[in-house]
Specification:
By secondary structure, the chain is of the alpha/beta class. Helices cover 18% and strands 28% of the residues. The radius of gyration is 18 Å and the shape is globular.
């Protein structure tokens, strides 16, 4: 790829930090050696900032994100970030039939979109398409969505009959479907069969997988399923490979060349895939099974189009 057309851009991708504090983050998740790593252009946090919401927890998450030096820090909610989902928060009833205070939603949004977020350099994204010209000269076109298939009584749910990601009859009126032109997709949950295996089986969304097959982004990052942490590749050019994701260590071909390292707290990938040729799938869950140390974020460098 000609350097005049594409620009190497470095992403720090993480998800499911679940109320982690700054001390734990800097010691166990993203230690001091991070100063020796390449400059980060974009941080992507794929949701579940908190354990069950709460203003103090949202502020704690912003403090953690504020410790990272990057041009852009883009964040979505997850199903545990309860107050950020207005529909959930205003209709939820506890065991006694009581509703929650609508002002708690307003307070949570004010934290994530107000002065505290601005001071941390964080942009909290609603569902939809977002475009940015980055300081390194690249253009980032990103689709974001915090919604996941309904499971239990959590925020941002949708039913099996709904399709939030493809513009079809089953798309609810409040949804923002995924457009074809985006380079990066950030959702809270995984697509069906891609880094989504947990004790309940493969619990990803088939409608989301359909959208990823249609859009063929350079990268799709998510979390939600802690057991699925890892990287896989969807190869759109090789015959008979489109229905099967491969672990990144097993990929081959010019359009999926990689530089892969996973030692200690370093999780770095140099990704040369192109939109339409292959998609790097990233489950970036930081939280793990109980008793196990947290996962490290993924540091991923890839090619974005140059801003015009």
């Amino acid at each position: 790829m000609a350097s005049s057309t594409f620009i190497r851009t470095t992403f720090l991708v993480l998800s499911d930090t679940h109320d982690i504090d700054l001390d734990t983050f800097t010691k166990d998740v993203w230690p001091a050696q991070r100063d020796q790593l390449p400059k980060i252009d974009v941080v992507l946090h794929c949701g579940d900032l908190t354990q069950v919401g709460g203003g103090s927890s949202f502020k704690k998450a912003l403090k953690v994100l504020g410790s990272i030096n990057a041009d852009k820090k883009l964040v979505i909610a997850g199903n545990y970030d309860l107050e950020l989902d207005q529909q959930y928060w205003t209709t939820y009833r506890d065991e006694d039939g009581n509703t929650e205070d609508p002002e708690d939603h307003d307070e949570a949004v004010a934290i994530m979109k107000g002065q505290t977020a601005t001071e941390a350099g964080v942009l909290f994204l609603d569902e939809g398409t977002h475009t940015y010209n980055l300081q390194n000269g690249a253009k980032l076109a990103l689709y974001a969505s915090p919604y996941t298939p309904s499971f239990g009584d959590w925020a941002f749910p949708y039913s099996d009959t709904e399709d939030r990601f493809n513009a079809v009859d089953a798309t609810p009126p409040n949804a923002r479907a995924m457009p074809d032109h985006v380079d990066i997709v950030m959702t809270h949950g995984p697509p069906k069969g891609i880094l989504d295996l947990c004790p309940q089986g493969n619990v990803g969304c088939d409608k989301l997988l359909q959208a990823i097959r249609r859009v063929k982004p350079i990268m799709h990052c998510f979390g939600h399923i802690h057991e699925g942490h890892g990287l896989e590749v969807l190869d759109w050019k090789t015959p008979n490979a489109q229905d099967k994701a491969l672990p990144i260590e097993r990929t081959s071909g010019d359009h999926v060349e990689i530089e892969y390292s996973a030692e200690g707290n370093s999780r770095s990938v140099g990704w040369n895939g192109r939109k339409g040729d292959s998609t790097l799938a990233v489950n970036a869950s930081i939280e793990t099974e109980r008793g196990k140390p947290p996962n490290a974020p993924w540091l991923i460098t890839l090619n974005l189009p140059r801003a015009i």
